[in-house]
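Suppose you are handed a protein chain with no further information: no name, no annotation, nothing but its sequence. What can you learn? This example shows the usual starting point.
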Amino acid sequence: MFNRTVCLTVALFASLPSSYAQQPDASEIPGYRHTVEKSRFFAGESVARTKVVEENGFTKYQGRNGVLAIDQKTGLALAVRSDGADKASRVPASAGASTAVLDPDEHNKRVVNYFVRAGLPRDQVGVVHANTYLSASGPTSKAASIEPRVDGYATIVSRQAGGFDVVDSVAWARIDGKGQVLGEWVYWPPIPAKVVDDARRLNETLNGAGRSDFLSKIPSPQKTGKVVIRHASPFAGGGFEAFASYDVIERNERPERATTSVYVRHFDAEGREFRLPHEMRNVGADYPPKEARPAAQ
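A reasonable first move is to predict its three-dimensional structure. Written in structure tokens, the prediction is:
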């Protein structure tokens, strides 16, 4: 049998210091922390009946059909279904027993309302769009002609602060027709107000008399870019950092391999290039230690 599933993959970013757990003050753009009390993710049983496990800094609420995990340090929250039920016992979607799939516009509306009611600041909601989940099944011999089926959507909510995109913050969720959350991911940390001020000044430079001088400084052949706010991911380690950045997208064509790579470069208000914490290389200590390695024969 041939099975194919196209699904949303989200990867995100760096650790925050313990001070992140404190309430934001006037010098911060407030963030949002998703909690088990706010989440509508259904792991197959009520929260009171889930198994609570502390592991690698995460508090995990494990049910028979999934797990909600919350990083107590960074505030990252993610929920995934295990889909561990006996697949042979499931009723096919074509049999009409499953919940009807919401159309993408309605799905977007419900996801935004879900997060805003939970406490995510509405004035920080940026672009909202739906990614499609597709699946198909059938014999391998007919793989090329199999028509994929729409299984649902995941709505991605991007963030803005002071009118600037906060590229590394995101909240997404997948909801069924009954309002149950089938999966979610939230990372929306507080941003220092100074960073928004820095972005505003950088934007003024690029829209004023200093534009030509600034663009002449950046060591990139691509001069067209956008002022954004960048911050550390929840995974890279180290303290939380946020930056105002002029981001440009470069393409690296390799005709001999018929490939094209696309990457983003970041520049500060002085035109100097910098890397985000999760873009730094830090391979750590050798493993196994050199002294423990067998001698070469």
